[in-house]
Write a structure and sequence with these properties.
Blueprint (H helix, E strand, L loop, with lengths): L20 H14 L6 H18 L5 H21 L1 H6 L1 H12 L13 H16 L2 H26 L6 H11 L2 H12 L5 H5 L1 H29 L8 H9 L3 H28 L7 H20 L8
């Protein structure tokens, strides 16, 4: 059996969960009725379930409107990735670029064209609600991170079309965007109602914590989804860290899993150390936003740890 990371020491469960999870799940189902982003009923149920219960663990203390925004945006990204990026994007990267370009102006408040497809209409809906809730600088960070995630999907499709032969370092740099954790982090401030100052945002422990959580989210997702992606592609090795590490180091997949599992455990320890540093070394009440941010990153990491045990990754 391939080795998976043991993260219990750094992120032991059970994780806090919002009581609003059932409402968010029902709301997501209604949202997908209005904006039919997913054709398969089975896939729709699975995505609503994992998104609702995942977001309930990502922001367990958030109010309901904030949770709905975060859930809708994450579901939109995942559904778009499944339907129009990945294999579909690799078949026609230029078409994916055109679709993504059409989404970018929605972040500036433009209305979607009357003949827009459900993805454009759904994104306009969730961004309008995010814009009303967020402070201007928060909204700019959110839309910038969304742009980066969409660019990551374009990059991934382009590399897949070229055979998927990229260096591990390049893949690792892009993975936090394609797993959407950067966008999830950007939603934390408007959803939870705090704002870091520029100095707080640039502090070394904060940057190291965000880096560790970003890496951990992508790597554990690659391990958990490896077999699912192989089945979906007819047995071909997926464009993910185990495949690229196997090629770069000349090892087999089992060895790659062992290496990546150890990398995940190390990043989890690094994240936990920075969380402890940020939450236990508070000089005065002005650092409250930093503490809140550290706790938000803690729950974001926990939600990705929780995600990989969900049935969606079983195929």
């Amino acid at each position: 059996m391939r080795r998976l990371p043991d993260l219990a020491d750094s992120f032991p469960g059970p994780f806090p969960v919002s009581p609003h999870a059932p409402h968010v799940q029902a709301r997501l189902d209604e949202w997908l009725t209005r904006y039919p982003l997913i054709g398969s009923e089975r896939a729709r149920r699975a995505l609503c379930d994992i998104t609702a219960h995942g977001i309930a663990r990502t922001f367990p203390t958030a109010d309901l409107p904030g949770l709905e925004i975060a859930a809708d945006l994450l579901l939109w990204l995942t559904a778009f990735d499944d339907a129009h990026a990945e294999a579909a994007g690799a078949r026609d990267p230029a078409a994916l670029v055109r679709r993504v370009a059409g989404f970018l102006r929605l972040g500036d408040g433009a209305q979607p064209p009357r003949d827009t497809d459900p993805f454009g209409a759904a994104l306009a809906d969730v961004l309008a609600r995010a814009r009303r809730r967020a402070a201007p600088e928060q909204y700019v960070r959110l839309t910038n991170s969304l742009r980066d995630s969409l660019y990551g999907l374009v990059w991934e499709a382009h590399e897949l079309a070229g055979g998927g032969h990229v260096e591990v370092a390049d893949y690792r740099a892009m993975r936090p965007h394609t797993v959407f954790v950067r966008t999830v982090v950007a939603t934390a401030e408007p959803v939870l109602g705090y704002t870091l100052t520029p100095d707080e945002r640039d502090a070394r422990p904060v940057r190291e914590l965000e880096s560790a959580v970003g890496d951990l989210a992508g790597w554990i997702n690659d391990l958990a989804s490896y077999e699912r992606e192989r089945k979906r592609s007819g047995g071909r090795d997926p464009f993910s860290l185990p495949t690229l590490l196997t090629a770069e180091r000349g090892c087999d997949v089992d060895k790659a899993f062992e290496i990546i599992a150890a990398m995940c455990e190390e990043e989890a320890r690094r994240a936990r150390a920075r969380i402890t540093e940020l939450t236990q070394s508070v000089p005065d009440r002005s650092a409250t936003a930093t503490v809140t941010h550290a706790r938000a990153l803690e729950s974001i990491a926990a939600s990705y740890v929780w995600h990989i045990g969900h049935g969606r990754y079983g195929g």
